[in-house]
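Can't paste images in this forum, so I'm doing it all in text. The chain is below; anyone willing to post the predicted structure tokens underneath?
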Amino acid sequence: MSATPPLTIGFLTPYSGIYPFFSQHLITGWLLGMGLDPARQRTVQFIPEFTKMGGMKASEEAARKLIFFNNVDILSGLISYKSIPDLVPLIEPQKKLAFFFDMGEYIPHFPYLSPDIFYASHQLWQSQYALGHWAQSTFGNGGHMIMPIYEAGYHLSSTFQQGVMAAGGTSLHSNILPFDPQAPLQLDLTAIFKRWKEDPPAYVHAIFCGALGLKFLEAWVHSGLHKNIPLLVQEAMVYDDILDDIKQADIELYTSRSWMREDESKANQLFVKQFEKLAKQPANIYALMGYEAGLIWKELLPHARKKDWDKVKQQLRTEVINGPRGEKNFYPLSGFALPDSNIIKINTSGNQIHKIILDQGKGMRFDAKEFEVIHEESVSGWQNPFLCI
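Text version of the structure:
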């Protein structure tokens, strides 16, 4: 009897200068979640296809190659919701199953919802909404947001603002820093820091990523504003690898996160220990996203190997897994389980990082009426998935 051929998964892989190994971590997490040994298993074969910065044209070309040339069983990878309208005409006529990952830089918006496409979203926008709600409830009106043009092109600031408004806020200022293509990593904060010293805001919410995020935090510590004005940051600025670079500084800030490596729950510690034993590095958000996907695909695998795609899709539309950060599902019409966002205070000093959970954040359904204004008014030209720069 011939062996069953491996399940083939085509993986759209954009470039991320911030997390260059995100795809390896995500795939490793996916296999671990399925209960497979990433080094020895022959059950699943991943076929990566480079999509440059993850724009629409590159994603479409890569998907076309994977579907029609490689004839993959499943189309997956890291994408932006902006690419979905171009991918639907490739996926649906072939009755393919697509299972995509995204960081949640955009609130999901589906004028047409394909029954063949499923989403493993980190829902970054949820932690931003929770942080905005908490900021208004804790510090009141008069906060200031600051961000470069890149971060301003997503829904991170808009959802923070919606959280502020939901908590009764009426005053929130926004500062978008100019971009110099000749010096993309230049960060001149002199004027705005001077203004804040003369007229202190209730709090500052910084939305940066990568090298600029580190530069901002270092400048903030040395500005004289530090610890005089509360600093709130979006969660990608304080992932553990970033904090490791500034742990020698005496810094105090607040953020909102739906997952912490230190969470002592049995499900989380199982994931963390499995990944770190294999990868020899700290568990991270991409490994987590893959692991959560693996938990549902462990159940789907027997049907997928028989090519019973109707059964696989039916289960993906309705099932909820209970993973390292609680409930998770993968089809928008089933509601997207609301993540529990924790409001966290972070202190670094003496090369130590201290995290304290202060509060439980507020979540909101992606199709809530309040978010319609974001889709109507925050029209972005940014096509690449968040952190793919």
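Residues 168 and 356 are 26 Å apart (CA to CA). The chain has 13 helices and 14 strands.
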